[in-house]
């Protein structure tokens, strides 16, 4: 097998990353979620102050996986990082591609002064074992936090009240 290389995503990678993100949404049984277009994804990551960091894994220059992360903040520890997506195409799973991508995100977090890396994993997703292997803590079993969300339409209603 050819060498697997992890590198920072480039603007011209955006279309392929979004195609892979659709594969991830299908895998997670969430294909009904709203989608952004590649122009928005490109703008948000490469114009002005980037809203996310993205690393890609390649084999023979073909993108076979990606990881998207962004900063968050907690008053109790300061700057943190949220891993939004980590996806590896099926043919390359079990070949340390995910570990290489996770290490790249961890390196970004450390180099940028982050004190924690948070992420969500669906209950049924076998990737939970992958994260456990890398010393991830299942906060839902350790702390009494529940995650909530207000969707865009409800945000609009809230500000119009």
From TrEMBL:
This is Diamine acetyltransferase 2. Pfam families: Acetyltransf_1. PROSITE patterns: GNAT. One of its GO terms (molecular function) is N-acetyltransferase activity. It comes from Trachymyrmex septentrionalis. Keywords: Acyltransferase, Transferase. Belongs to the acetyltransferase family. Gene3D superfamilies: 3.40.630.30. InterPro entries: Acyl_CoA_acyltransferase, Diverse_Substrate_AcTransf, GNAT_dom. Residues 4-156 form the N-acetyltransferase domain.
């Amino acid at each position: 097998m050819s060498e697997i290389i992890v590198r920072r995503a480039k603007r011209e990678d955006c279309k392929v990353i979004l195609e892979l993100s659709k594969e991830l949404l299908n895998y997670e049984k969430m294909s009904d979620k709203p989608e952004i277009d590649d122009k928005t994804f490109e703008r948000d990551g490469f114009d002005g102050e980037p809203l996310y960091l993205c690393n890609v894994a390649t084999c023979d220059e073909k993108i076979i996986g990606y990881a998207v992360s962004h900063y968050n903040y907690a008053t109790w520890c300061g700057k943190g990082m949220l891993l939004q997506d980590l996806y590896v195409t099926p043919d390359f799973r079990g070949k340390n591609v995910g570990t290489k991508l996770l290490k790249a995100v961890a390196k970004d977090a450390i180099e940028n002064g982050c004190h924690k890396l948070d992420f969500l994993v669906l209950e049924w997703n076998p990737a939970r074992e992958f994260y456990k292997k890398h010393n991830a803590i299942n906060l839902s079993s350790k702390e009494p936090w529940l995650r909530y969300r207000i969707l865009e339409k409800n945000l609009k209603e809230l500000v119009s009240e």
